[in-house]
Design a protein that fits this description.
It is an enzyme of class 2 (transferase). This protein has 19 helices and 16 strands. By secondary structure, the chain is α/β, with parallel strands linked by helices. It folds into 2 domains: 197 residues, Glycogen Phosphorylase B (Rossmann fold), CATH 3.40.50.2000; 169 residues, 3-Layer(aba) Sandwich (Rossmann fold), CATH 3.40.50.2000. Strands 3-2-1-4-5-6-7 form a 7-stranded parallel beta sheet. The protein starts with a helix and ends with a helix.
Length: 490
């Protein structure tokens, strides 16, 4: 048992604590006998807690200091753990609803925590420090109130202050600490504060100090695995993001049902023109349903459905896409034979209002843009209904890969993605999509790929066929091969 097998660590922790206090007591400082006694009681209590919680082998805590509903990889971890008989406690913010599979699973329990705000007066550094301190206490109490876990599996970033708190709880309770490195938190902070900002430098030191203390490490690319080994002294296992089975091409009937529901809220999905006398026909901008036979077909003159998703943060510059759409509009007005576009950009985030204002100022005639927030169950259905995906994710570290592209490929949806260092591990230029560097190149790619739309014998159809024939592992098999052995290792 992990809890029983780490008695020596508890004794060491108790000994260190006592040794720190003893010199002060001997020197006649304000450290009193009660303080030394308190240290002894703390050490003995730690031992008691760890011996009490013997049956921890089938309990795992999945920890996210972010929104669970927007953390699909950690939701997949929880589902995989539950499928292998683990009782899973998922801790994180609950701003957006997680997937129904997570909510329905009896072996998964969600413990929501509130996002902490620091003191709202005075310098920003005071607000930041108080936020970190309060979050430390909050997280420590939540983790210590839980039954002991065999492992705590934590997403990083965000990792401040979670890594230190989770490591401390693992040390106290004899649990194994596992970090799933999605990126480096300090590189994300540097996007808004600059690389030399004191808070960024502190965050970098923090990750470098506490990261190597984990018992096991996972990461999302081989490039990150190599960097962790060379620059951090961390041995990690690459667990590529893989699409779960919910990401697949969407049948026509499901496409129509989704388009019809979206049309109730978003006019971009509504059918244009009169439908007088067509009481037995139900239309959307993309599809037609014959109500007498319940058969669905795609409209021959439908617009192309372009889809992107984002968290509306600094590492995605959506002005690139908006400028490309303006150029695409110019191609059509200049006489090019191209379809109209409906561009759907899903997601929530801090810069959404900023980009909404830019979108509203465009006044495009042949390109319609909408920015819905979709339920977790609707997102894969829309991906499987789209004609082309666009990804504007530029890794702050140059070492992570966009999960949205993984999901698109699971739906056999070709993608145009902005270039960064390790993107080649996922997007194969001219095989499953195209890679661009600026808005002009993206506009030319849209023009080229959609020039034969909706025919399926052009480059867009070729990319889709390549995705159908080269489907790799799904998430479950990938997880079983790479993560399960870490959890069952002695």
């Amino acid at each position: 048992m992990a809890a029983r097998g780490s008695c020596a660590a508890s004794l060491a922790l108790f000994a260190v604590f006592s040794l720190v206090l003893a010199p002060f007591y001997a020197a006649g400082c304000d450290v009193t006998v009660p303080a030394v006694c308190a240290a002894a009681v703390t050490g003995l209590l730690t031992l008691w807690v760890r011996y009490r919680d013997g049956g921890t082998d089938r309990r795992v805590c999945v920890l996210v200091l972010g929104d669970l509903g927007r953390s699909p990889r950690m939701q997949y971890h929880a589902l995989s753990l539950s499928k292998h008989g683990y009782d899973v406690t998922v801790v994180g913010f609950l701003d957006c609803k997680p997937h129904q599979d997570v909510l329905r699973e009896e072996k998964i329990r969600i413990v929501p925590i509130k996002e902490v705000r620091g003191v709202q007066v005075g310098p920003k550094i005071v607000s930041y420090v108080t936020k970190v301190l309060v979050q430390c206490v909050q997280l420590l109490l939540v983790l210590l109130k839980m039954d002991s876990q065999s492992h705590i599996l934590m997403q990083n970033p965000p990792g401040l202050p979670g890594i230190a708190v989770a490591w401390l709880v693992c040390a106290l309770r004899g649990s194994r600490f596992v970090i799933d490195w999605h990126n480096y938190g300090y590189t994300i902070m540097a996007l808004s504060h600059g690389r030399r900002h004191p808070v960024v430098r502190l965050a970098e030191w923090y990750e470098h100090f506490f990261g190597p203390l984990a018992a096991h490490n996972l990461c999302v690319t081989n490039a990150m695995k190599d960097d962790l080994q060379e620059n951090w002294g961390i041995k990690a296992t690459t667990l590529y993001d893989r699409p779960p089975s919910i990401f697949r091409e969407t049948p026509l009937k499901l496409q129509h049902e989704l388009f019809r529901r979206l049309a109730d809220t978003y006019p971009q999905f509504q059918s244009e023109g009169s439908e007088d006398g067509e009481v037995k026909v139900e239309r959307t901008a993309f599809s037609v349903c014959d109500l007498s036979s319940d058969s669905v077909t795609l409209r021959a003159e439908r617009p192309a459905l372009l889809l992107s998703s984002t968290s509306w943060t600094e590492d995605e510059d959506f002005s690139v896409l908006l400028t490309a759409l303006e150029e695409y509009e110019g191609f059509i007005k200049g006489g090019a034979s191209l379809p109209s576009l409906v561009c759907v950009i899903t997601g929530k985030g801090p810069q959404k209002d900023h980009y909404r204002k830019l979108i509203d100022s465009l006044h495009l005639e042949h390109v319609k843009i909408c920015t819905p927030w979709l339920e977790a169950e609707d997102y894969p259905v829309l991906l499987g209904s789209a004609d082309l995906g666009v990804c504007l994710h530029k890794s702050s570290s140059g070492l992570d890969l966009p999960m949205k592209v993984v999901d698109m490929f699971g739906c056999c949806l070709p993608v145009c993605a902005v270039h960064f260092n390790c993107l080649h591990e996922l997007v194969k230029h001219e095989e499953n999509g195209l890679i661009f560097r600026d808005s002009q190149e993206l506009a030319e790619q849209l023009k080229s790929l959609l020039s034969e739309f909706p025919r399926s014998d052009g480059r867009l159809g070729e990319f889709r066929r390549n995705l159908r024939t080269s489907r790799g592992q799904r998430w479950d098999d990938n997880w079983d091969q790479n993560v399960l052995p870490l959890l069952t290792a002695p």
